[in-house]
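Re: [ENG-882] Designed sequences occasionally contain unexpected residues at chain ends

Forwarding the minimal case from QA. Structure tokens:
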């Protein structure tokens, strides 16, 4: 079993691992989306990890403080996670200035040796402040709104050696590369066989409760595929478009002819309902 911890993100993930369900780690770009996500967690009595991109911290500096306030006042377990932090100095600024529970130290755009060296140094600095650390082993291909695209860098599947190396770098959460991508797969989701479940199972067995597994690249996932990922060991489920596309569609359809306050209310309602649906799918409803 994972060790006891006071860190909110790890408490949420350790409970999910013990209960064999997944927890949404949901991206928010604004206060309306943040509000809808939290309302869903309260309504479903579900844990939730709120995720912000580093670009959002710069675009909307007060959003992290609003999220942190919600984490402290909610009646269900919430935590605040910064996803895909790719700049060393910005990471140091984040962990010094902001009330975050966990950070993804994403050095995957460096070569393997430098990735590990930087990750280990930053993991210690985060841990000294009680902040949990996620890292990406291998390299997940693609990009999405809010994070840098990997460009010409080749996707690298996570190997057994990668797992040992990142555990030795003292990360708490590992995001493996198993054929998943950042960005869109297409309307039908990943192609049959695109995700290497044998690799995911082997990684989960190798980890043996020492860290938790984060699943990146869930755009366009059907429910059955998400459930299969959970069954094979994925606990922290990063979601962006998977939830937010209903919000985007609502705005595209209604923005031109709907008063602003009504538009905001309608968008939050539809996003809350979609988040609740995925909490049911992932098995976290009623677990708070």
């Amino acid at each position: 079993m994972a060790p006891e911890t006071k860190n909110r993100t790890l408490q949420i993930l350790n409970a999910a691992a013990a209960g064999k369900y997944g927890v949404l780690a949901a991206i928010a770009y604004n206060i309306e989306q943040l509000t809808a996500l939290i309302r869903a967690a309260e309504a479903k009595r579900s844990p939730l990890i709120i995720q912000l991109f580093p670009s959002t911290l710069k675009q909307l500096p007060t959003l992290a403080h609003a999220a942190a306030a919600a984490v402290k006042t909610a009646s269900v377990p919430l935590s605040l996670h910064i996803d895909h932090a790719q700049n060393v100095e910005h990471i140091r600024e984040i962990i010094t200035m902001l009330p975050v529970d966990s950070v993804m130290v994403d050095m995957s755009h460096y070569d393997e040796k430098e990735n590990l060296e930087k990750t280990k140094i930053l993991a210690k600095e985060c841990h000294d402040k009680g902040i949990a650390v996620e890292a990406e082993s291998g390299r997940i291909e693609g990009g999405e709104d809010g994070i840098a695209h990997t460009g010409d860098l080749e996707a690298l599947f996570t190997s057994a050696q990668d797992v040992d190396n990142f555990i030795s770098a003292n990360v708490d959460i590992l995001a493996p590369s198993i054929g998943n991508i950042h960005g869109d797969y297409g309307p039908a989701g990943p192609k049959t066989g695109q995700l290497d479940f044998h690799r995911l199972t082997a990684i989960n067995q190798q980890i043996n409760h020492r860290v938790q597994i984060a699943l990146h690249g869930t755009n366009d996932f059907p429910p059955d595929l998400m459930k299969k990922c959970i069954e094979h060991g994925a606990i922290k489920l990063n979601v962006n478009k998977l939830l937010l596309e209903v919000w985007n569609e609502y705005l595209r359809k209604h923005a031109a002819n709907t008063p602003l306050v009504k538009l905001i209310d309608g968008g939050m309602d539809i996003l809350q309902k979609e988040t609740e649906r995925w909490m049911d799918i992932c098995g976290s409803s009623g677990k708070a």
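QA comment: On inspection the terminal residues look reasonable. The chain has eleven helices and ten strands. Proposing we downgrade this to a documentation issue.
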